Amino acid sequence: MRVLVVEDSSRLQRALGTALRKSGYAVDTAGDGTEGLWLAESHDYDVIVLDLMLPRRDGLSVLAELRRKGKSTHVLLLTARDTVADRVEGLQAGADDYLVKPFSLDELLARVQALCRRAYGTKQPRLAIADMEIDPLARRVQRAGRPIELTAREYLLLEYLARREGQVVSRTEIEEHIYDGQIDRMSNVVDSAICGLRKKLGSAPLIHTRRGLGYVLEADPYSARP
Description:
This protein has eight helices and eleven strands. With 226 residues, it is an alpha/beta fold.
C-alpha cells in the first residue's frame, strides 16, 4: 500500500516514514501543504497522513481542495489541537480519522491499517482465499495451516492482491501502490516479487498471470475477468 505523509516537522516526518516503511508501506513525504497537495493530486494513494498546521497551505485547505476535486483517498489528520470543535471541523471537511499529538507510532500504524482496509471496502479482520488465510492485524500468512514467512514488502504485495481478489491488477498499479516511485519503470522488480511470492506460497498456484494485462489472485484461474 502507498501512503503520503504531509508533515512540516522533519523529525516527525522521518519517524513516520521510517515506521511506515518498516511495516512494508511505500511512503512519499512532503513538508508543506502546497507540495502535499501536488503529490496527492498526482498519485493514487491508499492513505494520506496530513498535519493540520503546515507552511504555505494549511492541512484543512489541502483536504478541502482534494474533496472538491473528487479525490476520495482516506485521510488521517494529525494535530496538536485537542478540542471537540477542532475534531468536528476536520471531520466535516472530509477527514476519515483524527489523531492528536503526541501519539504512539503503534496507534498511528493501526489507524493507517484500518483506513487501508476501508479503502478496499472491507472491515473483515482476516482474508481467506482457498486454503490461504491472511491476518492483516498480525501480518501473518498461512496456507493449509502452514505459516508462510514473508518480508514486509512481500506481505504488502500479497495483501494488496488479496484485497482485489478476482481482479486483474496491472504492473503499473502494483508499482504505484507497493513501491515508492523510486524504482526504474523498465526494471523487473514486480515480476521478481511475484515470482518470489509464488515460490513461498507453494503448489496449487493462487497468483496467475494475464499476459499483457497483469496478475490476478484467486483460487479458480478460469473465473477472472480483465
